[in-house]
Here is the input.
Amino acid sequence: MPQVKIIAKNFMDMVASLPAIKLDKLYNNVFICEAILRSLPPLAKKYVLQMLYINVPVPATMMEEWVLADGASKHRVAIDRLIQLRIFSEISDRKRGTSYSLNPTFQNNLQKHIISGGVLPREPMNSDNAIKLPSLQELETYALKQWECFLLQLINSGQGEKLTGISSSMMKIFQRGLLSQRDKDGPRLTESGFQFLLMDTNAQLWYIIREYISNAEERDVEPADLISFLLELSFHVTGEAYNSNTLTEVQNNTLKDLADLGLVKLQQGRKDSWFIPTKLATNLSVSLADSSARKEGFVVMETNFRMYAYSTSKLQCEILRLFARIEYQLPNLIACAITKESLYNAFDNGITSDQIITFLQQNSHPRCADRVPSIPENVTDQIRLWETDLKRIEMTQAHFYDEFPSKDVFEAACDFAREWGGLLWEDSKRMRLVVKSEVHNQMREFLHTQSK
Amino acid sequence: MGNGERGRPNKKIKYGGKDDQKMKNIQNAEDYYDDADEDSRDGEGEEKKRDFTKLELKPDHVNRPLWACADGRIFLETFSPLYKQAYDFLIAIAEPVCRPESMHEYNLTPHSLYAAVSVGLETETIISVLNKLSKTKLPKEMIEFIHASTANYGKVKLVLKKNRYFIESPFPEVLKRLLSDDVINRARFSSEPYYGGDGFTIGKTSGELEAGPGELLNEAELAAAAEEKETHSFEIDPAQVENVKQRCLPNALNYPMLEEYDFRNDNVNPDLDMELKPHAQPRPYQEKSLSKMFGNGRARSGIIVLPCGAGKSLVGVSAAARIKKSCLCLATNAVSVDQWAFQFKLWSTIRDDQICRFTSDSKERFRGNAGVVVTTYNMVAFSGKRSEESEKIIEEMRNREWGLLLMDEVHVVPAHMFRKVISITKSHCKLGLTATLVREDERITDLNFLIGPKLYEANWLDLVKGGFIANVQCAEVWCPMTKEFFAEYLKKENSKKKQALYVMNPNKFRACEFLIRFHEQQRGDKIIVFADNLFALTEYAMKLRKPMIYGATSHIERTKILEAFKTSKDVNTVFLSKVGDNSIDIPEANVIIQISSHAGSRRQEAQRLGRILRAKGKLEDRMAGGKEEYNAFFYSLVSTDTQEMYYSTKRQQFLIDQGYSFKVITSLPPPDAGSSLGYHSQEEQLSLLGKVLNAGDDLVGLEQLEEDTDGMALQKARRSMGSMSLMSGAKGMVYMEYNSGRHKSGQQFKKPKDPTKRHNLFKKRYV
Here is the structure.
């Protein structure tokens, strides 16, 4: 199983990790060039624009003069990023030292784009068209509902009805790393799975999209195509309907998956079919930091460890269940309690007290959010204390030896274990000792030689 | 009652959980009783979960303050504009489960509905008001439950006329139904003259004029039949009154009896000339509790629950002043008898010769034909031989028809004592006062029929916000056990010394000493240190040279020590055993340090906190943001990794449900305190350990007080192995020894200079 790290990586990091050929191919698309440009750190952006109309390599020494001394580190970051994305190519010359030039495809496209602007390959629907479009509000509700459905299915795999059109094989891909399959208990959330659920929607989306792209090849889809399509999608206008007649088959299939995730809404007209990007789609190319528009919180945490969540969402309920005991579910309120047991359960699953506290703080109800602190101090203290309580004991895998034939053998064994730094405990009266597991093999061999 | 039972959590003995299992291993078998409300929340995990998402939300649900669940649970938003009205209503019809800042929870139970009916709310009123306040449509189970629980309520009354008890009802068929019950039939006086076919006495009584939650209801809903009704009645044996009442409760015949006293029309009993003094201004919540009691112009029997320090005595005195008949006031001990007598004189215009105290030390008698008698439960219920003088006074009490029986601290008195008191004294109206309606022995429902339903219960947090009681900062101080003490603690042969070991933990002592110094010197506070364990109490008090009071301390000495504590600048700390839990009024104290406590008693914790709840200082300083926002401190010192931790969590439950929060402090005493605090060196610690281990088992145990029922409940199953000295009665020797020179040592004490800098305890919680 691949090691999955739950880091909300930027889309562009993924772009950067594409092989050179694919990356160059990506830059054929004007919109991707623009998206990449937007995603760059400010200094890198400036360099690109500065060099847009320079057709000869610029020596690195000259570029270094452009920045003040204290900007050196930023300069380094910018150059690294540009090289990583193959926007800059590095030319080393023994005489003149290092110099940089812009990727010609990228340069050309950007020049063109600046002059003529881009035209999306898809036409927006005319206003006189008879199809009634959903309002932005409706669209957002739709998007969140789809997303929630998806997440619910993700964590409740195996049980319950099929909620979305995502194929089960695809679901399995998403669940990889988030759920662990155990023979008896059925799938269980892993540590990463918990962390995933506690992340905000955008970060979660990133994770899923990343998985979606990195497994494209298994579905015979070119990842670069997918990336370019997704980036393009982010240039569409939220709430506008676009004709899907210009889409390739692969794109059409992708669109269906995206609809299941809530990124687009599909609408069938009389003869054309349309898709309407939602906020989730248009936020894709925005970097994570600025996209975390604060949702209104819903959790009221009381000093008596009772928690009231103003929510109708099944998913929220499932998330709360990760670390709290759900006691009452009302039409728009979930009443639960944080108990030692519920927390131990959470800790057991690898979720940390900080994650829980952060989750509570980020989601605290507006009525309590202004309070300082928004989560009662005694509750946060207690959550931390319970966690530290669990950490007081350190576990070391070890082996236990006894029934030594003689005192000499026992003492030799003790010395041997001590030399290897693996002696944990000895009882010379009854000739017993405990040795770290790492040393077990050597110990066994040693005892073998002794007994001969 | 099928429905009725559903709403009530099952009562049972709780063993479940690993903790308990652990407890059993390290301690003699003890039973832990939990009462109903806690049980429902501690439940056995998932199957307790209740899904009411199907309830239909009303379109304007945002403006309504509460949710009601089919199982009787009610959630109330405290930030709703309708909160105040909703709170008053809910407290009348339901039992509060927890009342923190933003969301309250209540339980609808047959008992609470009984209380609602007895304060004059009718079934339909309850349902319609609840429906108005609810965000959702009321679940039909709840409506059925309310109907089922209240259908029979308010139909039968118990009336005391000319020293005879009658059961009265407008419905002769109900009386017949009651008489078909064996217990009631036997209680009936057969000597009653025969009237008409049923043998019931027929009389007339005026209908009730209700004063319900007026803000929420229109006039039509409030209007109750005011015309005269014909009533039927029969007389019962006074000795059987309590049994009859019990038979009528919801869990039996389900015709709970209302007790009301039409004192204005009582021409038989002489009036008592007493008024409230003009300066006695009841606060809004006191006014409200009185209005529940006197809602329809008559006096209802019942219990009023107010936190300590919120002015219970003024409520009691006001009630007596309204009824204006002879009043018998019962307190738990001689000190509080004095305090009650004082309160009567303070708040009312009663003349000195109209009030008298009846204790073993002072046997006064009032002059004239009406007056107030203040005495203790023990004096009345005492079954041994009395002196001739006492016998006379008791005889007088027995023959008198009391207008009001005022009972203080009703939660501590054992049920059998109540029975006795109530059967000895005949009263028209009984008013019970308490701060904490929790008992570990599950006898709280007994109070329902012995005294009457709960009439009013104040919300602690609201009173804190209103500045009526002190804003207490609660803290749990974690004191790690020293290595040597912990090793002994874990040994099997020390099972009886476990408590002594964790209480005498040197780290705890040091934390205690540090806190005393900090508060005495830095803030000039007055401190009470509580210890249940007598051995610890004496050790601590001797070592720190502070005065102490415990069960065997004489009344005179107690008074002396308390006086010194109140007035002297040199006596700022007093050590109390659990005699100080209830009704010793020490308004000056504002800091409590608890070094040992009684197992998991939630009531004790609340009562102890109550010692410092009386609001001090200027109101504006005490409000949020004022310079003295927290002016009272409650520290509970626990030794980590011992059973004390388990108890501590349990004890705090009640206060936590009232909205209090306990901060955990892990860094006391500060590591740099060094030898400025006692038991610094290992030698000292070891010699202390030796002392603990060498003390007889009886010495290191708990103090037993007669009035202590929780204690008995909490260790009902403890097998006690007495030492020889205990069995032979030589135990008293110990008391004598420590009793001498106590007062002197308090004054000899010189304050040591504290080298440590000022510590802001509440900023530094982690090591």
